[in-house]
Design brief:
Rossmann fold; globular; two-stranded antiparallel ribbon; eight-stranded mixed beta sheet; alpha/beta; single chain; 27% helix; 208 residues; 12 strands
Amino acid sequence: MRILITAGPTREYIDDVRYLSNASSGQMGYALAAAAVAAGHQVVLVSGPTLLAPPLTCDFHGIETTAEMLSACETAWPDCDGVIAAAAVCDYRPAQRIQGKIGKTGNGLTLELVETPDILAALGATRGRRWNVGFALEAQDAHARAIRKLQRKQCDAIVLNSPAAIGAADNSVELLLPNGNTAAKWSGPKSEIAKSLMTWIETNLGTR
C-alpha cells in the first residue's frame, strides 16, 4: 500500500517571530511511518517541525502551518490507498499575521483567532474507496467526543488517547469503530503501538 501519514505539530504565526503551537513531539507519527516502511509499504510522511529523522525510504514533506499541511496532503492523496492522521494540528490561527515583530506597549494584546482547515475531514470528503484512520486526543467525555470526530471526518477508525501522550515515549490508546465499539486497546512504547495499529490496518482495511 501507499500510505499518507501526518505527524508532529503545526505552527500558526502571530508575527514573524511568535506563533501558536502545541507540545507534540511527532513520535507517534514517525513510529507509524517506520512501522509502515518496515512492513513493506510506501509512505508519504507530511510532518510539522520536530527533532526526529524520517525513515530513509519515505517520501518526506516538511511543513509548518496547517494550510501547508493540507496542501501537501491534498497533493499526495490521489496516489495513496489510505491515510493515518497522527498530526497534532492547530485548531485555530490568528486572523491576521503581523509583519515584523510586535513590540511591548505597556498594554495588553488581544488576538482574534479563526479556525484552521480540517485536514482529515477534507481528505474524507474525497476518499472514494480509500481508507482513513484518525487520532483523537481528548480530555473530557473522551469516548463520545472521539466517536463524533470519527463520524464527522468519515473515518474507518479513530485512535483515542489522552493529553498524557504528548511528548511521552509510551502511550495508552483505544481504537474505536464507527459503530462505537472498541476494536483494540494497546499500551506501551509508541513504536509497539504503531506496529499493532499497522497490523490491524493491514488485516481490516488493506484488502479494500
